[in-house]
Design goal:
Length: about 500
């Protein structure tokens, strides 16, 4: 089993212990953490998976498959008999904006729609005509977009009327998993906020959006803060969890900020997994809210301000799998920028922040007969960096205290050289948070804030800080202007 720089042997772990589970876009992961937030050596496990996608915008996963994966992870991480019943809590995060229709018995009637499912694009256009989108955003912190429930429910009513008629609950993937595991569907405040239906100030569901979607508010679980775990009985399959409380499911975005150490308004977290985001935790709602961003209520008195990017690791992985790259891709990323690099708008599965064009698709320009695979790969990575910069531009007025960007996630750990491109494009330093499974660690930390508030936490593990290179500032300013021009010409609604 891989050993990390901050893991701890079970016999040296500080009580109370927690099991943190993380359902991401590419895998279900989990592990035992001690009260200092350190992963317990040997008690970590991962089960890979993939979304089912199609050209019509479909992006789904079988919710029962995910429940089975969580069970396998729990089998693996609680198998050591020396663990006893030291686990005091189980916490779960999942990718945000998931949707599963369930019947009265809590059985799935649909696959789980992921954040990237864009089949409701037509309903988005209709709702934008019917509603005052700016007013909706100021109430809920979210735009009218394919990632959120109102247009999805409108689309489902037309596409699957029998399913909708049989539906007794609209749950997130995490709620469904908890119900299958322990019989209760516990929705964290952040999970409900990511439906796009929750008022970011009051914590109540928005009546206008519920009416527009023609849904019963009783079909949604009430939002619960992490301070409200339940002592639900774990199956006898996992005796190590006999004394554990179960926490409401939270979103990966909230957990990722906690895991990266971005827990106050001075640090922006850049997550770089299959999808990505740039986010800042605030005390209270952002007021006014920039039109290109979201602002989710994540707990009483706390909100998360930022913007999500559908295609980060997905775009990089697509390029690596599709192109015949040279022997040293990192050298391509550390080389000086050049005008010969193609300009790429990397929207493989639609755009969220800041333009919210849900049916956007990738655009490549500046490709010539001299363009090779390495140049195109560099163009994809630069395009991803520019999408972060577009979010950062919107973020700056609402979060002026930010002095650090903390980058974590698979792309950053696999290709840390890309952070130099990101720093150059953002024109600010970027610190590499080297801790693997940072989102999983964040979920553990959120639970430990409740179970062990007085135990000092182990510091986050960091690597290099990448400083922006002044010599390249003009080049990237021009590249960003070109990106905006192509975007406005081809993609803007």
């Amino acid at each position: 089993m891989h050993r990390t720089s901050d893991d701890v042997a079970l016999e040296a772990a500080l009580d109370p212990l927690v099991v943190a589970l993380d359902v991401g876009s590419t895998a279900t992961r989990g592990g035992v953490h001690d009260a200092a937030g350190r992963p317990v050596r040997g008690l970590q496990h991962k089960v890979p998976h993939a979304f089912t996608v199609a050209p019509d915008g479909t992006s789904v996963i079988d919710p029962d498959q995910v429940v089975d994966e969580i069970g396998r992870v729990l089998d693996a991480v609680t198998a050591d008999r020396a663990l006893g019943t030291r686990v005091a809590g189980v916490a779960l995060d999942t990718f945000a904006a998931s949707l599963v229709a369930v019947d009265a018995g809590g059985r799935a009637l649909t696959p789980c729609l992921t954040y990237a499912d864009s089949r409701c694009a037509g309903a988005v256009a209709t709702l934008r005509d019917e509603l005052d989108e700016a007013a909706v955003q100021q109430r809920t912190g979210t735009r009218v977009h394919t990632s959120y429930h109102a247009p999805r429910l409108r689309w489902l009513a037309a596409a699957e009327p029998r399913v909708v008629a049989a539906t007794a609950g609209w749950w997130s993937l995490g709620e469904y998993a908890l119900h299958r595991l322990v019989g209760v569907a516990l929705a964290g405040t952040s999970t409900v906020a990511w439906t796009g239906l929750l008022d970011r100030r009051t914590g109540a569901l928005d009546p206008e959006l519920l009416a527009a979607a023609d849904v019963d508010p009783g079909h949604f679980s009430p939002p619960r803060d992490m301070t409200e775990p339940l002592p639900a009985a774990a199956p006898t399959r996992w005796p190590a969890l006999a004394r554990a409380v179960w926490f409401p499911v939270v979103t990966d975005g909230y957990a990722s900020n906690a895991g990266a150490g971005a827990t106050d308004p001075t640090v922006a977290a850049a997550s770089t997994a299959t999808s990505g985001a740039l986010r800042v935790l605030l005390d209270g709602p952002a007021d006014p809210l920039p039109f290109g961003l979201w602002n989710y209520r994540v707990a009483a008195g706390r909100t998360l301000l930022g913007g999500a990017i559908n295609d980060v690791g997905r775009a990089v992985s697509w390029a690596q799998a599709t192109l015949r790259l040279g022997d040293d891709p990192d050298a391509v990323l550390t080389a000086p920028p050049t005008d010969a690099t193609p300009l790429v708008l990397p929207y493989l599965t639609g755009e969220r922040a800041p333009g919210w064009v849900g049916d956007a698709r990738a655009v490549l320009t500046g490709v010539t007969a001299a363009t090779d695979a390495d140049a195109l790969f560099r163009g994809v990575v630069e395009g991803v960096a520019v999408t972060y910069a577009r979010v950062a531009d919107e973020l700056a007025p609402a979060a002026p205290q930010v002095v650090e960007v903390a980058a974590s996630g698979r792309v950053t750990n696999d290709r840390p050289a890309w952070l130099q491109v990101l720093a150059d494009v953002l024109a600010r330093p970027v610190t590499h948070v080297t801790r693997k499974r940072a989102t999983q660690r964040g979920t553990a930390l959120l639970a430990l804030d409740v179970l062990a508030p007085d135990v000092p936490r182990a510091p986050r593990a960091t690597g290099a800080t990448y400083e922006p290179r002044a010599a390249h500032a003009d080049h990237y300013a021009e590249r960003r202007a070109q990106f905006a021009q192509v975007y406005d010409t081809l993609l803007r609604d």
